[in-house]
Each structure stands twice: as C-alpha cells, then as structure tokens.
Amino acid sequence: MYDIERQQQILEILNQQNSIAVNKLADMLFVSQATIRRDLTKMEQKGLVIRTFGAVLKNTSLPNNETSFELRESANKVEKRLLCQRCAEFLKSNSIIFIDSSTTLLNIVPYLNDFDNLTVITNGLFIANEIVNKTKHQVIVPTGIIQPKTNSILGPMTYTSLGRFHADVAIMSSSGLDTRTLSLTENTVDQAELKSLMVQNSDMTICLIDASKINKVAIAKTCSLNDIEILISTKCI
C-alpha cells in the first residue's frame, strides 16, 4: 500500500471516531507503529491531524481548508473515472475547454485523446502537466500565485488572466452541492471565484459531482444549478 493510500485510510478512520491510539492504527492497517508515526508526521505537517501522546486526533479547527491534492486524488478513484468517462461524451474536437484544478478532472486526461485539436485552459498544475505529457493538445495556464497544497494557481492575477479567455465548454467539479438552495459551493473563496468566472466565460458548463459532495455545503457559493447546463453524478439528486 502506498503512503498516500494509507494516509487516506487514516483520515477515513478519524472521520468515524475522531481520535485513535497509534498502536491500534498500526494493528488496523497491518503496519508497524514506526510507519504509522511517519504517516502522522506528514499529515500533521499538512494540518490534517493533531498528534498527542500515543494517539492522534483529526484536526477540525480549519474545516474549510482544502486537504492536500494527493489525499483528495486517492479518494473515490473509480467514481471519478466514471464521471469523466460520461463527461467526455459531451465534448467535441476543435474546442476550447476550461478545466478546473480538481482531482476529479485529473481523470479526464485519457479521454481527451479521443478528440483532435483541443485547447485546454486550466489553473491546475498537475492537470496541465498530464495533458502536455499524455496528449497532443495545447495547454494554457493563467498567471497567478501557486498554491502548493492544491497544486493550483489562484488569486487576483489569475482572475484577470482567465477573464481574457472564452471557452466553448467549462468542466468543473465542486466541494459541495447544496440541495436546499440548489447551488454549488467551494471550500475556499478563491476557488469559488475562479470557477464562477469559468462558468461566466463559457458557452456551456459541465459539473461533475461524486456522491460524497451531495448535501454538503462549503463556505463559498460558486453558482446556482441554473447556471449549469449539464450535471453529472453517480447519485440521484
């Protein structure tokens, strides 16, 4: 098992019981206590957990901060691939496409090889790198401040840069779908602002929502569901 996968399992365990002893974690994951301690050190540095003597607690003091790209990328992989496979059915060759920096959209890269002459505009560094290395399509990355935790580019300069472009399609995911207000929300204001701009500057928006995001409300509203032409999910809403 990779470190990232094990750390994701630790987070899932902490989601269920908030705190747990290190020796019990080691037994549950069939690894040594030294391995668990190394994992917890890395997770503590990322602000995901709080370590105490002989135990670990989930860090709930910053609920609206995004977790690291690596941990988010490892979660719900099969579902994310299915969402991207369905999304690809709505794409066409010779298109200009906005793609957000989410881990969900990282899974769309293989499907882009089914099309010719795409121009992809993305603030996601991992996604940009994957498209450059695994497809023949052109990639445009807006200017701005690199966010190491999410491997994305954000900030006022990014909004100005992205605002100069128009796309045929915007493809995005969301941190939460509020079924009460029928709106999409994000864990940070910067992400919500950027995705809102993508929606405004495209002819059509496709939003991919995995089951864990439905009925989850994050801090910042991106847009109304009325602004989304196509909503793809593995769960009925």
Descriptive overview:
With 237 residues, this protein is of the alpha/beta class. Helix content is 37%, strand content 25%. The chain is built from nine helices and 14 strands. A six-stranded parallel β-sheet has the order 6-5-4-9-12-14. Strand 7 and strand 8 form a beta hairpin. The two termini are 34 Å apart.
What's a quick, concise take on this entry?
The protein has 237 residues and is α/β, with parallel strands linked by helices. It is built from 9 helices and 14 strands. Helix 2 (22-29) crosses helix 3.
Q: How many individual β-strands?
A: 14
Q: Can you tell me the overall shape?
A: globular
Strand content: 15-25%
Order of helices and strands: HEHHEEHHEHEHEEEHEEEHEEE
Distance N terminus to C terminus? 34 Å
Topology diagram in text:
Blueprint: H1 3-17, E1 19-21, H2 22-29, H3 33-45, E2 49-52, E3 55-58, H4 69-74, H5 77-88, E4 96-99, H6 103-106, E5 119-122, H7 125-134, E6 138-140, E7 145-147, E8 152-154, H8 156-162, E9 167-173, E10 176-178, E11 183-186, H9 189-200, E12 202-209, E13 220-224, E14 230-233
Parallel strand pairs: 4-5, 4-9, 5-6, 9-12, 12-14
Antiparallel strand pairs: 1-3, 2-3, 7-8, 10-11, 11-13
